[in-house]
Amino acid sequence: MNASGCSSIPSELCYWITFLAKALPLRSVGTFIELLIGSMLCSSGFVTDAYHVIDMQNHWGSYYKWLQEGKWSWLGLARQFLRLCLVVVKVDVVNLVIDDTLTLRTSKKAPCSQYHHQHGNKPNLANYVWGQCWVSLAMIGVRANKSPIGLPLLSRLVPSTSNTGKLIAANTLIRAVCGLLKDISIRVLVDSWYMRKRFIKSMRARGFHVIGQVRIDTRLYDEPKPRKKGQRGRPRIYGEKYTQPRIARLKKTETCLKLYGKDQVLRYRTKIAKARFLEGLLVRAVWCEFLGADGGWRSTRLLISTDVIMSAEQVIESYGLRWSIESMFNQLKLAWGLKEAWQQTRQTLHRWVHITMFGYGLIQLLSCIESETVKQLCQQHSPWRTRSPVTAGQIRKGLLKHLMHVRVRSWWNRKCKKFEPPDKVKCGKRQENTLYAV
Q1: Residue 180: what are its φ and ψ, rounded to 5°?
Q2: What pLDDT does residue 144 have?
Q3: What is the per-residue pLDDT for 146?
Q4: Span 245-273, mean pLDDT?
Q5: What is the pLDDT of residues 340-378, one digit of tens each?
Q6: DSSP string covering 57-93, please?
Q7: SS3 assignment, position 332
Q8: How far, CA to CA in Å, does 107 sit from each of 114, 135, 348, 402?
């Protein structure tokens, strides 16, 4: 690679790869870097395609053996990536999203594959499909143009031969990373499937707040009136119930908020109430309706937040961030090959999928920062899109132009344990970034 090619590679990417490499044994770093960059540039989920997109040093069988038998932890790598995200994405409140997705399979030998209900109601699929269910944990980041993105942190393949379900998998994902989230305000955004007492109580025990949508007929009550002095009987737990006529009498507020990538007109009612399914826990309840394109109001949705200090608009905006994980799933499946990712065992599949996820996450992180090198990288690939927002697809195509068939293992300096382009002096000496030195 010439000097101009070296200068086109964002220095932040080199710092981040060096930071991730600290979570692996020294003898595994070279192989990891090759597979990481290969999956970053490859649009399919096959190890063989990642092997061919750059100039690998070893025989292709070595990389399969490293994935299957290598002495390294994909969970430790995931924690290291979370540390990186917390440093790069500087926010006052960290929004985590938990959701599940299906990858369709035809083979009965696919690890943990079984029949699943296809709740997406897609017309070209049957109600029950054969595939693998993944429960994923993502962190919400904000791009330079203020649009939210999903950064994948952890995914767990739901087993098919035990009683381990999606709720247990979600709790396992949170438990794996909660040690890194101390003294940080955390909001966990989930859909209606995960709004269960078991999950919410577990999050509250860790000090996390939960925001999600529940059934419209969820039983909510006022706080009971204070007891009179000397009043007999046991104290009441709940006050008056919120029925449909009573909800209709609440104050209605109409507003316009930027949700799901566009301005949305909606109206809402809100109240602090006790939720019966949470054993009387105080929650902020928000009944909201969206204005449709035909001018009519859509059906009412009920959102609840365990953080009663939040306003109704903050609850609605926070829950709107949850949709970022759907876009993340779509890109990982179609553009980064998650739907084609295949390994013979569950452990090996977890390893390869997480390497692919972190390759996608690094490119998404590049779109979150204000960097002239990243902008120039995109302009070199598509100069006619100078006014368009920087996207992960643009960055990947720009990196592919400079890194295709390059021996990136030679960029790893075993002596100083840094990942950096060759001929650093010719490319311009850069200073050590102490932000990622730990």
Answers
A1: -90, -5
A2: 54
A3: 66
A4: 93
A5: 898 989 999 999 999 999 999 999 999 888 888 888 888
A6: SS-HHHHHHHHHH-S--HHHHHHHHHHHHHHHS--SE
A7: helix
A8: 10, 21, 17, 37
The residues pairing with 67 across neighbouring beta strands, listed in sequence order, are none
Answer whether 264's CB lies under 8 Å from 313's CB. no
Angle between helix axes 346-368 and 392-403 (nearest 10 degrees) is: 100
Long-range contacts of 240-249 (CB under 8 A, 24+ apart): 242/271, 242/273, 242/285, 247/287
SS3 content of the chain, % helix, strand, coil (to 5): 40, 20, 35
Closest C-alpha among 294, 288, 348, 426 to residue 111 = 348
Instruction: Let me know: does 280 contact 274? Beta carbons within 8 Å.
Output: yes
Q: What is the pLDDT of residue 142?
A: 77
CB atoms within 10 A of CB 216: 12
For residue 104, what are the CA distances in angstroms to 158, 339, 396? 14, 7, 26
What confidence tens digit (pLDDT) does each residue in 16-40 have?
Answer: 999 999 999 999 999 999 999 999 9
| Best CA proximity match to 148, nearest among 288, 259, 255 | 259
Q: How far apart are CA 147 and CA 257, in angstroms?
A: 14
* Among candidate residues 237, 236, 315, 235, the one with its CA nearest the CA of residue 271: 315
Burial class (CB in 10 A: 0-12, 13-18, 19+), 137: buried
The residue ranges of DSSP E strands in 125-259, in sequence order, are 128-142, 148-157, 185-190, 209-214, 220-221, 253-259
Q: Tokens standing for 189?
A: 């955004």
